[in-house]
Write a structure and sequence with these properties.
Layout: E1 5-13, E2 15-26, E3 32-42, E4 45-49, E5 54-57, E6 60-65, E7 72-77, E8 86-87, E9 91-97, E10 100-108, H1 109-120, H2 127-143, H3 145-151, H4 158-164, H5 174-180, E11 184-185, H6 190-198, E12 202-206, E13 209-210, E14 215-216, E15 227-229, E16 232-234, H7 255-262, H8 275-279, E17 294-300, H9 301-312, E18 319-327, E19 333-340, E20 344-347, H10 350-358, E21 366-374, E22 378-386, E23 394-395, H11 396-404, H12 409-416, E24 421-424
Parallel strand pairs: 14-23
Antiparallel strand pairs: 1-10, 2-3, 2-6, 2-7, 3-4, 4-5, 6-9, 8-11, 9-10, 12-13, 12-24, 15-16, 17-22, 18-19, 19-20, 21-22
Helix pairs in contact: 1-2, 1-6, 2-6, 2-11, 2-12, 3-5, 9-10
Length: about 425
């Protein structure tokens, strides 16, 4: 096996049933196991047993497959009600932690990619679209291999929890990858596997370094140019462009220009309403699929006050008005000022992201208008916006339509990014 590997936590439990298909070496010995085994914690040791034998090992043990390609295993937490519908490949690392067994899977990077993308794009039937997703995820994994291996199954902090599980954002984080990895389905999308095989070892580079390319669900017809990877701002290879075949930029810093674009009818790739396309875009919950390109949401003053109180860590008895102070060139709001009865606060960067997540606003690219005596919320505000997610980099819906129209993987990546190239790494 020459491919890079990842090491991911997959289970903490008192015990786990492991069904080994093929032979696995145990620890440093030449002993091989196959078939069904119960692995459990017993004080300071790990016990591996079946109906015929009990094996006691120290507090760490490695199950190494004799054949990385052909061997696989299926797991089920003892007493668990869920059926074992997924399988795993690679090595199994078992250790003791606080009276439980901690199970980690050292997995081939391409098997991991197949697993994650099969779950996310189970019904997608566009090969070039899937090849783009494979190359972008592989680039991310190669760049952050050490960080992913170091994180483990951690409990996210309260504020991060809102952002981590925000259905408007679909990009991975090291934490998320441990949660979304559940092995490979026994009924997988064969096209995902084809996409992995046809792009084997390929990653995206900028200035001779592997780079992470941002992905949003829908750019709203114009791609964003500001994106933060942790605390680091990315911008060198992002484009401000309309999502059309003609490569034209669009400046939406001015509110009037943004308003005109919001209600325009340009024929952008991501201005897509066909239900068969929207239904196959992703297999996870992304909310209302009919409001990806343009959206509208009415929010009560009470809910806005609760969101601001959480961000500002204080009580907000009333919300009087909301003012947009500054936009970026792509139309995303950079500064949003909230006025209460006797105080105000300006939201920006992470605070603004948290505000939109708490109120389930698809983006921070919107106009806002005050409402009185609304039938559904009483006094509140209506938000009208474009796109879904941060809108920077690759537009997922636009990519789907471009793939359907016959664009190749390389052309799609060049459409959304500048000064990047694809290179085979293994």
């Amino acid at each position: 096996m020459n491919n890079p590997t990842l090491k991911l936590d997959i289970l903490y439990s008192k015990s786990v049933m492991v069904s080994l298909e093929g032979f696995y070496f145990i620890g440093d010995s030449q002993r091989c196991l196959s078939g069904d085994w119960l692995v459990r914690a017993d004080q300071k040791n790990i016990v591996i047993e079946n109906d015929d034998e009990i094996i006691v090992v120290d507090n760490n043990v490695l199950f190494a497959p004799l054949d990385w390609e052909e061997s696989f295993f299926i797991m089920k937490e003892e007493g668990g009600e869920h059926a074992a519908k997924n399988y795993y490949k690679g090595a199994i690392h078992v250790s003791l932690k606080e009276g439980k067994v901690k199970v980690e899977n050292e997995v081939d990077i391409d098997f991991f990619i197949s697993s994650v993308l099969d779950r996310r794009y189970a019904d997608n039937n566009q090969l070039e679209f899937l090849k783009v997703q494979v190359v972008l995820l592989r680039s991310y994994l190669l760049k952050f291999n050490k960080e992913i291996n170091a994180v483990g199954l951690l409990e996210p902090k309260a504020d991060n929890d809102v952002l981590l599980h925000n259905k408007n954002y679909i990009e991975p984080t090291p934490e998320q990858l441990h949660f979304v990895y559940t092995g490979c389905s026994l009924n997988s999308n064969k096209l995902v596997q084809s996409a992995v095989e046809q792009t084997k070892g390929m990653a995206v580079f900028h200035n001779s370094k592997v780079v992470v390319l941002p992905i949003s669900l829908c750019c709203g017809g114009v791609t964003g140019v500001e994106y933060y990877l942790g605390e680091d701002k990315i911008g060198d290879y992002l484009k401000n462009r309309r999502d059309t075949a003609e490569d034209k930029s669009l400046d939406l810093q001015n509110d009037d220009d943004f308003y005109n674009w919001l209600y325009s009818t340009d024929n952008c790739f991501c201005n897509e309403k066909r239900s068969d396309v929207l239904s196959k875009l992703v297999s996870v919950d992304i909310g209302n699929r009919d409001e990806l390109y343009r959206w509208n949401k009415v929010v009560s003053k009470k809910d806005i006050g609760a969101a601001i109180a959480r961000i500002d860590e204080g009580r907000w008895e009333s919300i009087d008005s909301i003012s947009i102070k500054e936009r970026s060139v792509d139309g995303n709001i950079k500064q949003l000022e909230i006025f209460g009865e006797d105080k105000s606060t300006v939201l920006q960067k992470k605070e603004l992201m948290l505000f939109s997540a708490l109120l389930d606003l698809p983006t921070t690219a919107f106009v806002v208008k005050s409402l009185e005596n609304n039938e559904s919320v009483g006094d509140g505000f209506t938000f009208n916006g474009i796109g879904k997610g941060h809108r920077a980099g690759l537009c997922l819906l636009g990519t789907m339509v471009m793939s359907e129209k016959g664009y190749r993987m390389e052309e799609i990546i060049a459409h959304y990014f500048k000064d990047v190239y694809i290179s085979k790494q293994y």
